Amino acid sequence: MTAPKLSKTSEISETPETTETEKNWLVVAKNRWVNRDWEALMQRHAENSSRCYHDLHTAPTNRQPGRVFSLKGKKYKGVWEYEVSKGDRVFYIPNEEGVKLYQEGQKLEKKGTKEAYQQAIEKYQQALKIAQELGLRKEEFNLLIKIAGVYSSKFDNKNAIEHLKKALDISQQLKQPLLEAIVFGLIGNKYINSNNPKEGLTYL
User: Fold this and answer.
1) Are 47 and 21 in contact (CB under 8 A)?
2) pLDDT at residue 1, rounded to an integer
3) Is the pLDDT score of 24 beyond 90?
4) Calpha distance 166→171 (Å, rounded)
5) Predicted TM-score of the model (pTM)
6) Residue 204's pLDDT is what?
7) Are 191 and 161 in contact, with CB atoms under 8 Å apart?
8) Which of 94, 129, 164 is the last residue of a domain?
9) Domain count across the chain
């Protein structure tokens, strides 16, 4: 999704949350201004906002007559509206195709064969492209880590490091020091496993 822009309206974006079950969605604010407006909405209508968040997190494409529905017209393709109150609405984009690709990638990855790993990477890369188009930086980060993990399973440290470095760039742009530290460690270990301990130590 792409998050709330709540000066009477809100924009949100949704994609699958990698740390939870496949049934749950991650609700992501498109930018800090949207997040600020969402917080203001929560203060004005705490109960309704909580219900809105729950619905978007669990079933964003379940229609509720007069409250939750998809918008019509080519200009609003893929956009849904959620009426929080009479004067406040949230507009969001459920990343359904990204969810489908992510879940297909997970199933392929679990097979554990060389061919299945490659197919999983292709699915994750397609999901990554969608996340990039929607501007979902956190999901882009998660998918890059996921792809790097599959390359590691294939003992392809070169490609694993390449994707981890891209994830590192995003963690720095998002100003997430904990994520940054984790990725530094992953890159360092990959270099060490690639018989390049000197380079690896620069990341550890």
Assistant:
1) no
2) 44
3) no
4) 9
5) 0.70
6) 86
7) yes
8) 94
9) 2
